[in-house]
Specification:
Layout (H helix, E strand, L loop, with lengths): L2 E13 L12 E13 L16 H16 L2 E5 L3 H8 L7 E4 L5 H12 L12 E10 L2 E6 L1
The structure holds zinc ion.
């Protein structure tokens, strides 16, 4: 038996899927939701701030904000081999927010990216087997992807 929690952050992020047979090859954006699923043992250390929790939701929120939101919110994510966009965005001023990644920015690949962004920062001092189980990514209200280790 395990206990798990979920916490999400949302971003407004642009992308395109360069080889897509239809409309996803156009530049566009989504209101993404990155939802971390975390499991662990409930902290039973009497008097601890986290007593009765597996981790404080606000600590998860801080990690999601710093390592996902603050990197790709109001930014355009570009596949490094998408020559058309890489060259196009080179024309823009330095302070324009683009994030070049080594993968095609589909929801599936962004789920894996987000998982790797969050995992190293999830720490506990209670030895309660805290573990990032999955990163769920909502691209549209009907479309979700998930990365699990
Ligand atoms: Zn899209």
């Amino acid at each position: 038996m395990t206990t798990s929690i979920r916490r999400y952050v949302e971003t407004d992020t642009g992308h395109r899927v360069p080889n897509h047979k239809s409309k996803c090859s156009h530049m566009h954006g989504h209101r993404y939701r990155f939802e971390a699923e975390i499991e662990g043992d409930v902290v039973d250390f009497e008097g601890a701030s986290e007593e009765g929790m597996i981790i404080d939701f606000s600590d998860v929120s801080t990690i999601l904000k710093e390592h996902i939101h603050d990197i790709i919110d109001h930014a355009f994510v570009i596949y490094e081999r998408d020559d058309l966009l890489v060259n196009l965005f080179k024309q823009l001023p330095e302070n324009h927010r683009i994030v070049i990644v080594p993968f095609i920015p589909t929801a599936e690949n962004l789920a894996k990216w987000a998982f790797e962004q969050v995992k190293p920062h999830l720490k506990t001092t209670y030895g309660n087997n805290l573990k990032l189980v999955a990163m769920h990514v909502r691209e549209t209200p009907k479309s979700w992807a998930c990365w699990k280790e």
